Amino acid sequence: ERDDFMEDPPRKFNRLAPGREVRLRYACYITCDEVIKDDAGEVVELRCSWDPESRGGSTPDVRKVRGTIHWVSAKHAVEIEARLYDRLFSEPFPEADGRDPSSVINPDSLEVVTAYVEPEIADKEPGFGFQFERLGYFCVDWDSTSEKQIVNRTITLRDSWAKQIKKGK
Q1: 10 Å Cβ neighbour count for 16?
Q2: How many angstroms separate the CA atoms of 133 and 157, rounded?
Q3: pTM of structure
Q4: Which of 167, 7, 135, 83 has the alpha carbon at shortest distance from 15?
Q5: Number of compact structural domains in the chain
Q6: Please, are residues 167 and 155 in contact by the beta-carbon 8 Å criterion?
Q7: Domain boundary among 42, 69, 96
Q8: Which of 71, 87, 135, 144 is the most buried (most CB within 10 A)?
Q9: pLDDT per residue over 50-102, tens digit each?
Q10: Alpha-carbon span 8 to 32, nearest angstrom
Q11: CB atoms inside a 10 Å sphere around CB 71
Q12: What gap in Å lies between CA 88 and CA 106, rounded to an integer?
């Protein structure tokens, strides 16, 4: 995913950046050597080198890398629709103070994006559940067809509302 790369990252960014080394999940250590951009300045390609001694995630010199990223081959990826559901209400207690819950509906409670996944995901039947690392849990939607796979995010991985709910009780 694009979030795994940043051209000019902050110090604690533990993913891929020019000159930085990360672990490629289930593979080896890679270092970003070159960033290729199109005429509009958008990153279209990253040229990386890999350490053949790091296969399996460890090296003879026992060095550690800070980040682990995952990758899907552009050549083999399958395009799907991902429906990213979020909270329906913008407040943890929509009926608080007698207000009408419809007044605090979250306008961003659904975001529909195009995603690219490994071919195995595109073949799953409706109702099949799985996790996209760092993104959350998803299931295959019943609206899916043989031409278009649709997945729904059912649970996010970070819940910043837990503290708000505790404060409200």
Answers
A1: 22
A2: 9
A3: 0.72
A4: 7
A5: 2
A6: no
A7: 69
A8: 144
A9: 999 988 777 888 888 888 888 888 889 999 999 999 889 999 999 988 999 99
A10: 12
A11: 14
A12: 5
